[in-house]
Give the backbone structure.
Amino acid sequence: MNHNSIDKLVIVGGGTAGWMSAALISQLFKGTLDIELVESDAIGTVGVGEATIPPIQIFNGLAGVNEQEFLRDTKATIKLGIEFQDWGAIGDRYLHGFGFVGRKIGAISFQHVYLKALSEGAAGPLSEYSLNNTAAAAGRFNRLAKIEGAPLPGITYAYHFDAGLYAAFLRKQSEDRGVKRREGRIEEVLLDPESGDVAGLKLEDGTELKGDFFIDCSGFNSMVFNKSLGVEYDDWSEWLLCNRALAVPSSSEPRSLRPYTQSIAHQAGWQWRIPLQHRTGNGHVYCDRFISEDEATQVLLDNLEGEPLKDPLSLRFTPGCRRKLWHRNCVALGLASGFIEPLESTSIHLIQIGITNLLKVFPTKGDNNARAREYNRRMRFEYEAIRDFIILHYHQTKRDDTPFWRHVRNMDIPRNLQEKMASFEESGHLYRIDDELFTEVGWLQVMLGQGLRPKQYNPLADTLSSDDVKEYLNNLKTILDATVAKLQPYPEFLKSISQQ
Ligand SMILES: Cc1cc2nc3c(=O)[nH]c(=O)nc-3n(C[C@H](O)[C@H](O)[C@H](O)COP(=O)(O)OP(=O)(O)OC[C@H]3O[C@@H](n4cnc5c(N)ncnc54)[C@H](O)[C@@H]3O)c2cc1C
């Protein structure tokens, strides 16, 4: 028995971050830790954040979530990737699909084989060598662990879900496992006068809530990290210009039920379309230095596929993250910790890894300094790697039709990103820094999709004959096409989950 264990964990806020924390920590601690969550119905949640990436399945699995119940209760749909439209150039379109793209031949990475074939006019679009892309284009889906008769994995998928319903779903699970929920507005964060640590929260009705450790999940309010502890915020606006968003749900139309998220670039930002079972989530992320709110609203409303169900919700944000994400006896998660625009649906993932990293170095009542340093190092690395991947989408473009696009294509970019782009352009070589979130095939799809063409490929690829490379790609495409032809039409799959 660890006699130094904390007795009471307080979660400040009950949006996606708060309830994800409560659900996973309560599941893993099996009733041995007292957990209380405070949220305010009057303040509510940000109400957006509905597209995810495949690791959410790991989170749901650890949190004991049953997939059928989850799909039904959160009105979820399947996501095979993100389609980018008008990003590299107006009229361009590519899908950043999850899962594999091609397969290496011996020691030769797939992209070199592909680039060789491309230079010889013997390759189709990259998407033809991805199972997820092929399934998305055909509008078909089934759960598939591996491709029959071939040494290839199956479909890798994530979800779109209703953010409010997901929080409610996790709340029920958490409360069933003993998490206490307290409704009320927090007026003050109480600090210990000697240590400066957070001692408790004072609510509007005068109640004081004490705890040993706190997780700040209070959204853009950042009650503990910003308002109380004053942890500095690193502003990344020089690279990520967008600082505003408008969000509006629209009626669900059959043509909108695509098994992927859409991201459509506009004059000073981009628009998302996230199809759920019962509605489509839409939003316009933009930079207010280049377009007014009225114009941005018009762009959004002009590009809906269904009828708007509400007035657009307007949100302001500063891209970046807090200099420390564990400070004193508190960790910040979700919007309280920082925000990178949702172009690759990474915020919920950052919550997930924030929680799992916290679990790896779970605090005690004693000295937590080494734990906090490790947590901060790790989370900073994750944030910066995602930031660079997002910047790539803006910087690598041929668009010069508006001041916004001229600005982003000419701006300076972080050093790691410069090096990755230079490496790919010079030699077709791609690399992943440590175990950063996006893999080589993620970088490959976006770099090529955005129009970055390597000047050369690895000479090892020339040890393969042109005929062999052509045959290899043709075989791969034949296998993927045949596999996808056996999958269910996606609308039928959706019908089956909504009826379960
Ligand atoms: C425009 C936009 C689009 C996004 N799209 C995506 C996406 O597609 N995919 C993705 O992964 N992420 C996305 N995100 C991010 C995602 O929405 C958030 O990461 C996620 O919703 C977590 O929010 P949160 O729980 O941190 O904050 P919130 O949902 O805002 O929750 C904050 C909680 O704190 C409580 N609270 C605040 N102040 C007080 C107080 N004084 N007293 C008591 N309670 C208080 C509130 O009541 C609420 O319960 C998007 C974000 C934005 C802004």
Notes: The chain has a mean pLDDT of 97. The longest strand covers residues 244-251. The chain is about 35% helix and 20% strand. Residues 135 and 484 are 6 Å apart (CA to CA).
